[in-house]
């Protein structure tokens, strides 16, 4: 899945300062960050396969995402290869969905379609009640920024920024930066949810791989997206850190976020409300015979 771009041109003045240009003496950071209370955002009870969709005012809620008959064929080869062969998927507010499958089965391609980085060849994609199957790229980019959060296998952190400033990059919008106090609180709350608020002023070269991944996850969480797409977010992490990350991802569903997680880890998948398998271009509920 192609990652979103985070430009370094406008450096967020998190903690009241911006890093100096290359070659200039470093300025001393400003006041410390307020630490968000631990344990905020406990995960809601997940839905199991076959469970009814959440109800709103006595009626079934409109899904956040509804894919119907989505197809995708790779045509840049001698033999065209169908990756998605009629995928159906519904994600409601508060849902958590794990997608398992062999390498090359099309899991990342499916996330690219959901995240509007790629277009399906056929089928229909509804975001809420809006048909975005053939949405123009400019509008797709605006929707990605407003509605989606992304977590990748790679971290895509800017090395010259602190952890807090990397997270704050996701708060850029057409109206400029949030007020400093609100921005600082949101950034620290996101870092605290993945257990690294104490590393807010550290830059990526001073962080371990697991810590860098948690910064990347905090960056995805800070905008409180309606849909969070995670592509193997624990692949480079140890077991304990991976479990912490999965719990942080799940905590977003308590605020109504829809979570779609691609993973090879069955233990992590089992924590999701639904577990699906992508095989032969189709999604189906995963049973005990699932091959990941």
Automatic annotation (TrEMBL):
Stretches with biased composition (Low complexity): 25-50
Residues annotated as domain ABC transporter: 65-292
Entry-linked SMART domains: AAA (SM00382)
Coiled-coil segments: none
Protein name: Putative ABC transport system ATP-binding protein
InterPro entries, per the entry: AAA+_ATPase, ABC_transporter-like_ATP-bd, ABC_transporter-like_CS, ABC_transpr_LolD-like, MacB-like_ATP-bd, P-loop_NTPase
GO molecular function: ATP binding; ATP hydrolysis activity; transmembrane transporter activity
Highest rank taxon of the organism: Bacteria
Region listing for Disordered, in residue ranges: 1-50
Keywords on record: ATP-binding, Nucleotide-binding, Transport
Pfam families membership: ABC_tran
Gene Ontology terms: cellular component: plasma membrane
């Amino acid at each position: 899945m192609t990652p979103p771009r985070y430009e370094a041109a406008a450096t967020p003045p998190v903690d009241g300062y911006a890093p100096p240009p290359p070659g200039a003496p470093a300025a001393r950071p400003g006041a410390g960050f307020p630490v968000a209370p631990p344990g905020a955002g406990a995960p809601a009870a997940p839905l199991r396969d076959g469970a009814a969709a959440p109800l709103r005012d006595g009626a079934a809620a409109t899904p956040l995402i509804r894919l119907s008959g989505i197809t995708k064929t790779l045509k840049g080869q001698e033999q065209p290869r169908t990756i998605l062969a009629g995928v159906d998927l519904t994600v409601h507010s508060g849902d958590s969905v794990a997608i398992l499958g062999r390498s090359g089965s099309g899991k990342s391609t499916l996330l690219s379609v959901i995240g509007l980085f790629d277009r399906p060849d056929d089928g229909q994609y509804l975001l809420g009640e809006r048909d975005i199957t053939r949405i123009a790229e400019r509008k797709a980019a605006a929707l990605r920024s407003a509605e989606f959060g992304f977590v990748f296998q790679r971290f895509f952190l800017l090395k010259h920024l602190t952890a807090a400033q990397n997270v704050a990059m996701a708060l850029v919008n057409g109206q400029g930066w949030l007020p400093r106090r609100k921005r600082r609180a949101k950034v620290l709350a996101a870092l605290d949810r993945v257990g690294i608020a104490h590393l807010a002023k550290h830059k990526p070269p001073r962080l371990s791989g697991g810590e860098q991944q948690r910064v990347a996850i905090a960056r995805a969480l800070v905008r409180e997206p309606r849909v969070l797409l995670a592509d193997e977010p624990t692949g480079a992490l140890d077991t304990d850190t991976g479990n912490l990350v999965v719990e942080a991802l799940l905590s977003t569903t308590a605020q109504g976020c829809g979570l779609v997680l691609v993973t090879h880890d069955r233990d992590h998948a089992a924590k999701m409300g639904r577990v699906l398998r992508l095989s032969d271009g189709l999604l189906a509920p995963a049973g005990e015979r699932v091959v990941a």
